[in-house]
Amino acid sequence: MKLNTICTLIGAKTDDVPDVVINWLLTDSRSLSFPAGSLFFAIETKRNDGHRYIVELYNQNLRYFVVSKILPEFNALADAVFLQVEDVMEALQHLAAVHRAFFHIPVVGITGSNGKTIVKEWLYQLLHGDYNITRSPRSYNSQIGVPLSVWGLNEGTELGIFEAGISETGEMERLQKILNPTIGIFTNLGDAHQENFVSLKQKAQEKLKLFANSETLIYNKDNKLLDIAIVQAGIQAGLFSWGSDKDAVVHVLSVDKTNDNTQISLRYKQSEFKATIPFTDDASLENAMHCIVLMLYMGIGTEEIAWRVSRLETVAMRMEVKEGIRGCLIINDSYNSDINSLSIALDFMTQQATVKNLSRTLILSDIMQSGLTSAELYRRVADLVKSKNISRLVGIGSEITKYADKFEGLDTRFYLSTEEFLKSSLFGQFQNELILLKGSRVFHFEDISARLELIAHETVLEVNLNALVDNLNYFRSKLRPETKIMSMVKAFAYGSGSVEVARTLQHHHCDYLAVAVADEGVELRREGIRIPIVVMNPEQGSFGLIFDNKLEPEIYSFRLLESFIAYAEKAGITDYPVHIKIDSGMHRLGFAPEDIDTLIERLKSQTQLKVRSVFSHLAGADEARFDDFTRRQAEVFISCADRISNAFPQYIMRHILNSSGIERFSEYQFDMVRLGIGHYGVSALPGSGLKQVCSLKTIILQIKEIKAGETVGYSRKGVVKKDSRIAILPIGYADGFDRRLGNGVGEVFINGKRAKLIGNICMDLSMVDISGIDAQEGDNVEIFGDNITVSEVASWMKTIPYEVLTGVSRRVKRVYFQE
Ligand SMILES: *Cc1c(COP(=O)(O)O)cnc(C)c1O
C-alpha cells in the first residue's frame, strides 16, 4: 500500500508524505528486517511504549512512523516521516480492516479457550491442497497479532484462516471488524483467561461477537453452556453443530479408542460414515471434529475427509534451542514452514545469536503453498535471509533449488532431498554454528535434528522463555514506565541457567543484571551480554576480572571500599561506577546509617570510584505482618540515600524493592527495582496470574508389579501394603530431587494423575507408586511444572521455592523453548 493511501486511511496529520510503497507493518522494534518498506506503529500499552524505540529504529534506517505524540528527540531525525494519530493501535487495526475488505474470499475465524492454533494448523494441513491459504503465524491472535496476520492476505490468497483470542471485554468487537470471518469456529469454552470476565457465560457472549457477520458457526453442541449462550446471543449465522446430542447437525454416533488412534462414527444428512484420527486424547478429538465439520461444510466428500484426517500430524508449538554436536547450537522449529513463521524464527535466532563466535546457518526446505508465485516467494525469502546476517544457507527441495540464483552473495548449497543432504560431505562440516532448522513436514527435518543434537539426559529442566518474558512484563505493569529493572540472575539464574535467561532478558530491554560473584558476570560477558552487570559479592581476588569485564561492584563495607580504591589507583582507573549498599534493618551486608558521614567523606576524598546507585534490601516484603518494619526500612533507606545524593554532583539512582516488594510496595520503586524469584512465577499475591517458567521432567525407566509385604529401595523403607505397580525414575538426590521428598512425602505427575514417592530417594534414581495410573515405560513424568508448582514442592520439603529452584543440579540439562 502507498504510504499516502495509508496516511489518508488512518486520518493522520502530516505535511509531506513521500511516494513510497509499504510492504511491512512493524510493531516490535526488534523484528526489523526491511527498513526501506516498513512502517513502524509506536503502540502504547500498559507495559511499554513504542515511542521509546523510534530513535533506535531511525538509526537502523527506518523512516516511517505512526505515532501519537512527537517527542523532543524526534526533531533531530531529519528525514523521518511521522504520521500522527490519536490512537496508534486503532490506526493499525483500522488499516488491517480496510485491507481485509479488499478480499472477497472465505475467511475462517477461530476462537475459544483452547485449541485455536491446533485447529488452524490442522485446517491448513487438510486444505492446503485445495486452496492457497493465508493464516495467522503461530498464535498471533491478539489485538496486535490479528491485524498483522490479516495484513498477510495477498492477491494469491483463496482462503484465510485466522485465530482470535481475547482477555477482556470490548476486545472482540475490534477483532471482528478486522477479521470479519465468513465462517466461524468456536473451539470450546474453559476457564483459561477467566480473570477479567464475570462468568463463563459473559465470556462466551463476548467471544461470540466475532461471528456477528458470519454465514456459519461451527461448534460442539455437547458443550451446554456454549449451546445456550449461542441461542441467547441471537447469532444470525447458520449453526453447524456437532456432538452426541441428536439435534446436532453432525451427529457423533460412537467413539472408540484403541492404543494409538480413535475411530468415530458420524451421521450427516442421513448418511453414516467413519473416520479414524491418529490421536487418542480428548482435546485432539475435539480439534479434529471441528476440522471434519468444516470440510463437510465446504462440500468435501466423506471418503476424502476420512482419508485426510487419518494423516493428521502433531503440531509443534514451540521452538527449542538445544546443544548440538561440535559446538553447534540447534534451533529446531518444526512448526509449519511459511514465510511469516520463517521471519519469526529468524528473529528468535537473532535473539540467540549474541554468542560471539557462532556463525549463522539456515537449513530451509521448499515452502509450500504461499499464494505467491515461486519466483516472488523465493525473492522475498532471499531478502529476508540476507537481512538477518545468515552466512550459510542449505536449501532442500526442488523448488528452492530452482531459485538458487536469488540467494547470491551467501554461502549456499542445495539438495533435492533431506536424504541427499544427510549423505553429503557438508553434513560432517558443521562446527561452532548456530543452526536454524526450518522445514515443511514432508521433508522430515526430524532426521536432521536427530543427527545434529547431542543426546539429552532423560531428566531435563525445561525453561519456558515466553513465560519468563510474560512474568517480567507482569512486574513491569506494576511500575512507572521509566523505572528501571535489574534482573537478579545470581545462582545460575535461580537454577534456570544464567546465559540463556540473561540473553532473553537483555533482548526484552531489562536494564541491569546482577550476579553474586565475578565469575558469573565474566561468563555473561563472554557470551555477549552487553547491559550493565552488578556483582554483589566482589571478592578480593576478582578485582582484575571486574575491571576487565566492565562489571560494577557492590560496595558494602569500608574494608572492601579501601581495597577497591587501592586496586583502582594502581590500575590507573578513575570514575569507576559502584553501587553502595545500605543496611536498613536486614542486618546482612551493608553500611549502617551511622557510617554514612564517614563514607561520604571517604568517597569525596578519592577519584577512583563514582557512586552510581545507593540501595538496600528488604527483610520481609512478602509478609503483611512485617509491613510496619518494611516501611521503617524504607524510611531509614531514604534518609541515608538523601544524604549521599546531596553530597555529590551526579545523579545517584536508588533501589530497594525485590520481587515481592514490587508487588506490595510499589510506592518505593524509586529509580530501579531488583527482580528475582518473580521471573520464575513465584508471587507474593494470590491469583497474580504469573506463569510457571521451569519444569523439571523425567521419564519412566522401568515398571514393576510388587507384591504386598515386599519393600522398595534402600533400608527397606518403602513397604508395599497391597499389590502395587511401581515405576522407577532416573532422577535422584544428585539431580537435586531432595531426599526429604521420599517415603510418601512428595508426589510426581504422570499422565494426568499424581503418584506418591515410595521408599528412599536414591542418588540417581527414585521410585513412585503408579497403581491405578495408566502408564507405560518411557512415559513422561513431571517433578514440578504446570501441574505441580515449585511452591508445592517447597511446602513438602518445608522450605521456600528459592531452594527448590536453585537445587536442581548442574548435571540436569537445561532445555530452552519459546512457544
Ligand atoms: C536476590 C536478591 C534480590 C531478589 O530477590 P527476590 O526475592 O528473588 O526477588 C534482590 N536484591 C538483592 C540484594 C538480592 O540479593
Helix fraction bin: 25-40%
Anisotropy-based shape: globular
Task: Give the distinct bound molecules.
Answer: pyridoxal-5'-phosphate
Strands ordered across the widest β-sheet:
18-17-16-19-15-14-38-20-29-37
- In CATH, the homologous superfamily of the largest domain goes by the name Alanine racemase
Task: Provide mean pLDDT, rounded.
Answer: 92
Regions with little confidence, pLDDT below 50 for 5+ residues: none
CATH class of the largest domain: Alpha Beta
Q: Any idea how many domains?
A: 5
What is the CA-based Rg, rounded?
A: 29 Å
Which structural category fits the helices and strands?
alpha/beta
Q: Output the CATH topology of the largest domain.
A: TIM Barrel
* Strand fraction: 15-25%
The total strand number stands at 38
Assigned CATH architecture of the largest domain: Alpha-Beta Barrel
Largest sheet: 10 strands, mixed
Distance between the termini: 31 Å
Number of H/I helices: 26
Summarize this structure as a short list of keywords or feature phrases.
819 residues; alpha/beta; Udp-n-acetylmuramoylalanyl-d-glutamate--2,6- Diaminopimelate Ligase, Chain: A, domain 1; UDP-N-acetylmuramoyl-L-alanine:D-glutamate ligase; Protein-Tyrosine Phosphatase, Chain A; 5 domains; ten-stranded mixed beta sheet; nine-stranded mixed beta sheet; binds pyridoxal-5'-phosphate
